[in-house]
Amino acid sequence: MKINTELYRNEMRKMALEFSSGNGFLDHFLKSDEAFDDGIGKTFVWINKKRTKIIGYYNIGVGYIDTYNGDDKYKIGGSVHLNFFALDSDYRGVSVETRADGSRLKVSDQLFADFMQKVYELRENYIGFSFVTLAATDEGYSLYKRNMFEELDDDLHFSLKDDEKGCRPMYLALDYE
Q1: Per-residue pLDDT tens for 5-42?
Q2: Distance CA 42, CA 31 (A)
Q3: Which H or E element spans position 98?
Q4: Using CB atoms within 10 A as the burial measure, which of 51, 71, 81, 114 is most buried?
């Protein structure tokens, strides 16, 4: 099922006040001016059909993956970085469909598929990069693993923001098998 996310705009702020993912840090970001800061990334929201509630949101930024050769640091590829990803608590763990193989499609999978669609649109039309990176919380880890993300190998690195400390750095290589 295709969903429609929209670029987050100031007039949506009232709905953000009601948003609660269960993670105070993620909730605060959506309610703050940082959610509109182009220097951080672009925030996209999924709003219910009645346009009364934010179901979820994500924020896309940029980065790169590097490696070390002795003391020297080398970039190996640019990345789109998933800065923030959250669902309202009312939608967490909710299944929307059971697939033929018995696996369940969840609301979180729908929002993540929308994020990945934006990633491919950016890559095809606007900017070159080889990776998608993110820092996974314990709650989000299984979603990212289901979507083929891997934890960074010991020889690969990307810079973590202060709020990503304690999370698991993960990546998806778009050009490699």
Answers
A1: 999 999 999 999 999 999 999 999 999 999 999 999 99
A2: 14
A3: strand 95-98
A4: 81
